[in-house]
Design a protein that fits this description.
With 254 residues, the protein is of the alpha/beta class. The structure holds 2'-O-acetyl adenosine-5-diphosphoribose (OAD).
């Protein structure tokens, strides 16, 4: 479902039509309209919780069952959720947009972009759908098959843990390098549904903006990034992405 049609400034629409390499960076707000909660603010996942009690290696070491139960609750929400028109617009752009290169980078762990049909997605913070052995034996599992109360890996040397990046951990080097390289090469970037406060992901749009490349933020709220960008659409992800995608693909439903 999309809100009333959003009107883009003419120079922004022209930049969307002219782009050769588009990079789209998404955050939790991208999935909010699918019913997946964001992290910060009222009703956010961190409300009433301290991230260090749930999303750190230390928290998992102290109480793995509690951490797994939180991730399994989130995974259930994600599995019930459906991609919205904004997700589908991004899939249509990758498929039909005629870009020389299209790069989708996400901080989200919910795999909604892949479910909507995007083929190559750089996941900066991993994925909630998978688990792997904390001892590094290489074994992996589907997260929904892991028993929170008995998550011992078959190797016997460690537990299976969610394949997400926790606070205090490094981002996957390949994913971060690939994302930074894409923003160095891009001639347009869209930043959708992120509070732009968690680094290093929050530094990525600046790589393109500093080169004078048109960077567009799509967010109903202002963020620390807003003042540094030439364009900022105060809109939901679905309305903003549908308007941007239509500038490239013409009038159509997503
Ligand atoms: P946040 O929860 O910090 O921010 C969500 C953003 O989405 C806010 O700026 C909202 O204004 C915006 N928003 C809300 N509804 C929206 C909608 N319908 N359309 C578009 N935008 C909307 O989430 P992230 O910026 O993704 O990290 O957070 C970054 C990282 O912090 C996450 O990846 C996670 C978290 O702690 C880890 O777990 C490592």
């Amino acid at each position: 479902m999309t809100e009333g049609a959003l009107h883009l400034p003419a120079d922004l629409a022209a930049a969307v039509r002219a782009a050769g390499h588009l990079v789209v960076l998404t955050g939790a707000g991208m999935s909010a309209e699918s019913g997946v909660p964001v992290f910060r603010g009222q009703g956010g996942l961190w409300e009433g919780f301290r991230p260090e009690d749930l999303a750190t290696p230390q928290a998992f070491g102290r109480d793995p069952e509690r951490v797994w139960r939180w991730y399994r609750w989130r995974l259930d929400r994600v599995r019930e959720a459906q991609p919205h028109a904004g997700h589908r617009a991004l899939a249509a752009l990758e498929r039909d947009g005629g870009f020389e290169r299209f790069t989708l980078v996400t901080q989200n762990v919910d795999a909604m972009h892949q479910r909507a049909g995007n083929r190559s997605v750089i996941e900066l913070h991993g994925t909630i759908t998978r688990a792997h052995c904390e001892a590094g034996c290489g074994r992996t599992a589907e997260a929904h098959e892991v028993d929170p109360a008995a998550a011992l890996c078959a190797c016997g040397r460690g537990r299976l843990r969610p394949s997400v990046v926790w606070f205090g951990e490094s981002l996957p080097a390949d994913a971060m390098d690939e994302a930074a390289e894409a923003l160095e090469q891009a001639d347009m970037a869209w930043v959708v549904g992120t509070s732009s406060v968690v680094y290093p992901a929050a530094a990525l749009p600046g790589i393109a903006a500093r080169r004078g490349v048109p960077v567009v933020e799509v967010n109903p709220e202002e963020t620390p990034l807003t003042g540094q960008l030439p364009y900022s659409l105060r809109s939901s992800a679905s309305a903003g992405l549908v308007a941007l995608a239509r500038a490239r693909l013409g009038e159509r439903e997503f």
